């Protein structure tokens, strides 16, 4: 999808993606699933520590997404994530997706840290 990681540290991440022609729907605007994937990628980077492998992974338990403005092919979208609250193995992150100065998506993700799956 061409997602570029700009910054990634525990509790904060920034990613960017340029909307390509094949990412738009029949109305000529970015397909919601594409913008969701950008936000979800930022969410994963925000709640998983990028360098600390303590034998766990952090996975989504649920998300809410609000599409606030359309975007189109050629637009560069930037998603920024912040850890809002962590309590034990559970937490909440907020992700904001912007095109230039316009907020196009607000995404709130809930997560749980679990033991890493055993490799087969």
Automatic annotation (TrEMBL):
GO terms for molecular function: acyl-CoA hydrolase activity. The keyword Lipid metabolism does not apply. Residues 27-104 form the Thioesterase domain. InterPro entries: Acyl-CoA_thioesterase_PaaI (IPR052723), HotDog_dom_sf (IPR029069), PaaD (IPR011973), PAAI_dom (IPR003736), Thioestr_dom (IPR006683). It holds the Pfam family 4HBT. Keywords: Hydrolase. This is Hydroxyphenylacetyl-CoA thioesterase PaaI. It comes from Kocuria soli.
């Amino acid at each position: 999808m061409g997602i570029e990681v700009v910054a990634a540290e525990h509790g904060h991440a920034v990613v960017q993606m340029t909307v390509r022609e094949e990412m738009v729907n029949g109305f000529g605007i970015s397909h919601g699933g594409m913008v969701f994937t950008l936000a979800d990628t930022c969410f994963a980077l925000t709640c998983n520590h990028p360098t600390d492998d303590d034998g766990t992974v952090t996975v989504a338990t649920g998300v809410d997404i609000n599409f606030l403005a359309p975007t189109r092919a050629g637009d560069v979208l930037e998603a920024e994530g912040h850890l809002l609250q962590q309590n034990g193995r559970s937490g909440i992150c907020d992700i904001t997706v912007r095109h230039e100065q316009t907020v196009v998506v607000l995404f709130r993700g809930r997560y749980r840290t679990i033991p890493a799956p055993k490799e087969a």
